[in-house]
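User: Hey, quick favor. My workstation is busy. Could you predict this chain's structure for me?
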Amino acid sequence: MIDLRSDTVTRPSKEMLDTMFSARVGDDVFSDDPTVNALEEKAAAMFAKEAALFCPSGTMTNQIAINVHTRPGDEVICHKHAHVYYYEGGAMMRNSGVSVCLLDSPRGQITAAEVEAHINPDNIHRPVTSLVEAENTMNKGGGTIYKFEELELISGVCRKHGLKFHLDGARLFNALVETGEKPSKYAHLFDSVSICLSKGLGAPIGSLLIGDKPFIRRARRVRKAFGGAMRQAGYLAAAGIYGLDYNISRLKKDNDRARHLGSVLETMPFVESVIPVESNIVIFKLGKKESAETFIARLKEHDIHALYLDGQTIRFVTHLDFTDSMLEKVESVLQTIP
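Assistant: No problem, here it is.
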């Protein structure tokens, strides 16, 4: 099976499983799990922040951050296709009682100028703007990578207006292996950062929320209220440590394979357009003669699986379980489609 639906489909390697089974564990609700503590300390140090919190999912880390940074009735500025809004089940409204200001920037990347233009005035008729959220890489934008300079400008606008700034960095490391930037470079830009361990890093579960000590102290309370406190979670945390130690640099291979897929698709007669590929996500639009349903069915005949987004739009995502031989097979199959 060749699974290009998402990088969430990865399975732990033998080496990662061996690390998990040999982990030292305790009760994390009592902060007694040494492996969870080590993972949180490791992540905080990577981002030059004071503390981190291990959670079951990226949705939880994002929603905890929103809950801590806002009060009910506040407004969050983000892109209309941001994961926190588009793919998290209305959680920010359900769990935190906030409203949202949706920006419509090209390829999912908000700008400092747009943010400043959409900060609400101090008027009782308008919600209080309190938080800005950016996603890097931007999933619905085709895995686009933010220019660091633009993030600096957005951060400056947030500081100027007393707003918090959160980064959904689920696939941040896919960006960093391209730009050469260090995680610690992001420390002064964001009040909080969420990173995912179960996508390109190959862990079976888990995300981390990173920030200063007062923020993480409050976040730990919210995690408990959201039902995310775990007991002997060190077996899972060990996989996260392994991923951070061994699976970051190899993300470049995923990005390169995705770029190759993008270049192949651009030559296909049934493809109308391909969003420029910057990381490990390939989003392309089929021409009117080829329906998305039929296209996905053709791929399934060869045990290749892709994700339908909307209309005629399809997504491929490369990952550590997608090899060069699989890439060759996908290319060969694509060339058989008229």
